[in-house]
Amino acid sequence: MEEHNLDQLLAQIDMTRLPRHVAMIMDGNGRWAKNRSQQRSDGHYAGITSVHNVTEFSSDLGIKYLTLYAFSTENWNRPTEEVETLMYLIGWAIERELPELLRNNVRIHLIGDMERIPEGPRKRLFDCRDATAHCTGLQLLMCLSYSSRWEIADAARKLARAAADGSLDPDSIDESVFAGYLATAGVPDPDLLIRTGGEQRISNYLLWQIAYSELYFTPTLWPDFGKEAYARAIIDYQQRERRFGKTSEQVQQNPGSL
Ligand code: IPE
Ligand code: IPE
Ligand code: MG
């Protein structure tokens, strides 16, 4: 591929048609480390720089929502040492990034079963989330101890409880009522889902929300995913025609009707 620098790539982005919500599966840290004969934890550490870069880039561009898959429900099954390192790194990184997040008006939301996060990192995460509660710029959703099936089952449990105690009429449950019980309530569905690391699968991520998202898979490993790679993904996204079930002719005649 022809090499472009960031400015050249930025010039190709149509700022009037940015995705409102970008979701990412940050995969490939372990392989990145292995390629360098380093420890998996070194890969996770290197991945923090990519989180910093994609957050800054989203914020600078004016993207409203960025959702990052940092740790899945299934990742609890990894070796204890790796899980402990990841938990420590997540708490440490968010604290380190807090001043810049505040400077950039970025608000942190935590999505997932936070009860399972060890107390130390959980407190750091909650403190940073609360410190950004007033921020109105980029809304950064961190998915931690998250899986989509967990989230959907959790929503079903809450709906059942509300129906049982009489505060919800079961016949009123439609797609929008259901979505209101998900962890992403009030957040528009992702327009673009990016997965780094080469796998072409969803790994239990946002199954409900990505019904009509554009999918972008790149072999680039997460620690190598920088602003240029992100810009390329957005340019690719902007070349697609989103039809939402309609015909191409309908979309072209009335683009605003979607
Ligand atoms: C993604 O990188 C980070 C997490 C899942 C926490 P991996 O650790 O899955 O890296 P690979 O897929 O083994 O290369
Ligand atoms: C998905 O990556 C989860 C995160 C990036 C946090 P995995 O590395 O856990 O996915 P699988 O197991 O290869 O599908
Ligand atoms: Mg992986």
Question: What's this model, at a glance?
Answer:
It is built from nine helices and six strands, in the order αβααβαβαβααββαα. With 258 residues, it is an alpha/beta fold.
Helical residue percent band: 40-55%
Mean pLDDT rating = 97
Large-scale geometry: globular
The termini sit apart by 34 Å
Q: Nearest-angstrom radius of gyration? A: 19 Å
Counted beta strands: 6
Main sheet makeup: 6 strands, parallel
Runs in which pLDDT lies below 50 for 5 or more consecutive residues are: none
Overview of this protein structure:
The protein has 258 residues and is an alpha/beta fold. It contains 9 helices and 6 strands; from the N terminus they run αβααβαβαβααββαα. It has helices at residues 6-12, 29-35, 40-61, 80-103, 119-131, 148-164, 175-179, 227-238, 248-253, and strands spanning 21-25, 65-72, 107-111, 139-146, 192-195, 214-217. It has a 6-stranded parallel sheet with strand order 3-4-2-1-5-6, sandwiched between helices. Helix 5 links the parallel strand 3 (107-111) and strand 4. Helix 2 packs across helix 3 (40-61) and helix 4 runs parallel beside helix 5. The protein starts with 5 loop residues before the first helix and ends in a 5-residue tail after the last helix. 33% of the residues are buried. The mean pLDDT is 97. Residues 27, 197 line the site of magnesium ion.
Salient structural properties:
44% helix; alpha/beta; 6-stranded parallel beta sheet; 13% strand; 9 helices; 6 strands; binds 3-methylbut-3-enyl trihydrogen diphosphate; binds magnesium ion; 258 residues
